[in-house]
């Protein structure tokens, strides 16, 4: 094995071995991103046009469900 390949392999092994998980800053950014995604999702789902579409779709369900309904 060439010296360059051994060096790269050793550095990669160190990177993999020294992974202790996420830091506090990474957790904070992930939490903020999740909260922002939740806010956007809530805004979309509670929009009046979306609610009208959902109600319209639920009114059509008995037609697609078949004769047992």
Question: Explain this structure to me?
Answer:
- It contains 3 helices and no strands.
- It has helices at 3-17, 24-45, 48-65.
- The chain is elongated and about 75 Å long.
- The protein starts with a helix and ends with a helix.
- The mean pLDDT is 80.
Detail the topology: elements first, then pairings.
Blueprint: H1 3-17, H2 24-45, H3 48-65
**Structural class, judged by helices and strands?**
mainly alpha
Largest sheet: none
Number of DSSP E strands = 0
Computed Rg: 26 Å
Order of helices and strands: HHH
> pLDDT below 50 for ≥5 consecutive residues: which ranges?
none
- Average of the residue pLDDT scores: 80
Query: Globular, elongated, flat, extended or rod-shaped: what is the shape?
Result: elongated
Q: Roughly how many Å apart are the termini?
A: 71 Å
Q: What kind of oligomer do you see?
A: single chain
Helix residue percentage: over 70%
What structural keywords apply?
mainly alpha, 69 residues
Structure described in brief:
The chain is mostly helical and 69 residues long.
């Amino acid at each position: 094995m060439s010296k360059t390949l051994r060096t790269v392999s050793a550095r990669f092994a160190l990177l993999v071995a020294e992974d202790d998980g996420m830091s506090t800053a990474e957790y904070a950014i992930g939490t903020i991103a999740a909260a922002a995604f939740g806010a956007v999702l809530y805004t979309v789902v509670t929009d009046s046009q979306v609610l009208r579409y959902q109600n319209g779709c639920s009114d059509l369900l008995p037609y697609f469900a078949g004769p047992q309904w």
